[in-house]
């Protein structure tokens, strides 16, 4: 005996068809029918439930004084009623089950209940406040949690701020726009505050104190990410250079994973002898190693662009160095610029230094280790994710001593020693648009006041292109939300990324310039942090001043705090124009507030350089005369250009206004920089 059941393509069942159940008795058949009917009823009820995306939840903050969209899913053509305070709105879902209503603007207040009711269920969110909502996004310096900030020990125990809440968006990737994400709202307390974005926390604390309204933070950030992964495919197609990249994007996430797996497997198989044993790897620093079968790569540079895309693991690099006879080899140093992430460096088989984390490497070579003739430098690099390799500038890579400098930039031999599992998976920078799709699109069109953004470190190598890529991203976000909300960002702090300056060129200075140029967009503001970074750490622990400076800009840009009173200035001096008087350059500034101020007990201005027509920069003497700066150098008879704070590590700058906001680093020239030729997608990404 058999019972036949025709299953329709409904209620989430993916295929219609006939299922045969062998039965042994009529009683068994009746029991089965009851069970199946109950199961189908459960499926039907579940499918008919009203749902809202996870951007909504208990303890959330809704934007005051703006229309508030509320949206979700239900059965096709189902009536959905949404209630908040005295507002009651009803809408019918579309044929695709999607629905959306818009609540009328409300003043700050609460707590309220937000209720969404359908025919079969009711969704209730408790402890809902109305106030100011800000997106917090970018890379690791925005992601950086309060527990790791310099003031964490004193700040966290007193972080009792029930009107400050955070929605932490879980990290995710997608090549197509998602309509939901994982995350939940948390009320700020000593138990939850350690996981708040530190910059966002101090920003919210300052704003809450000034506005006396609830503050909601939506923290969607991911360390080490490029701006292009936060930009939609639609926007990239509007950009001549980025359109090429967008056209090469895989169609599905499955294709991404497949490509990564195939690429990494092919890489390992391409090595003549595959991966080494531990004993074999120990021989790779030796001078007499036969590396003729090793591949070559231009160094320095991110190895993801040089032949190891999406690769995380261990790679050895070797370079043969020929030293001329008669060379004086006293006090020799090996300089490599920045390495990402960890290195162990050998000269002629001897370990001369190792370091963990990104940053400049300068290792002393023991006297007598180098010899005239053939020598070998070997570097073992461990990369745990994102960028990998020797990533400084060519000028930083050399062997140098008292009377000898040997450039080492160029082709190096390399070989993979081990592959980490993360190599087979796509990373956030593997392809553009992924974080926009997975971590931003699900938030749209949640009503917000604006965005605070801390990113740019990962784009420094393509700083010139950031002049267009960053404004493009801002306009992209505004287009999707449908209004030109305030967008506030942090200018890169001082950090010795690769000893860059006016003589060698500085990628970080060029990135800061690109950020300053973005202020041409309406409703933007920038917090300058050149004075509060850390020379050897890309993650400054002082997040409190960053948050406060962003809050000051928010009061100006978002809340129209008047600047007619100079004491209410929210930003530092910005270069206006230069005139030349003999051998001196005279500089004037905007945003001087109550006047320019030199933050030095002796009154010495630092960070200024001047150049003539030969484009060679010299450290300059700078004098404060009223609200002007007069700059000169004995070596420059006729100044053509002045630069201020033009270096990776520009922490010596000390020009402020009386309100203690630092001046924006700048240059008066437009001479070609070192990042103009580097574009996103040059290596096929």
UniProtKB/TrEMBL annotation:
InterPro entries: Galactose-bd-like_sf (IPR008979), SASA (IPR005181), SGNH_hydro_sf (IPR036514), SIAE (IPR039329). Keywords: Hydrolase. Residues 131-234, 444-554 form the Sialate O-acetylesterase domain. Coiled coil: none annotated. GO terms for biological process: carbohydrate metabolic process. GO terms for molecular function: hydrolase activity, hydrolyzing O-glycosyl compounds; sialate O-acetylesterase activity. The keyword Endoplasmic reticulum does not apply. The keyword Hydrolase applies. Gene3D superfamilies: SGNH hydrolase. This is Sialate O-acetylesterase. It comes from Spirosoma endophyticum. The lineage of its organism: Bacteria, Pseudomonadati, Bacteroidota, Cytophagia, Cytophagales.
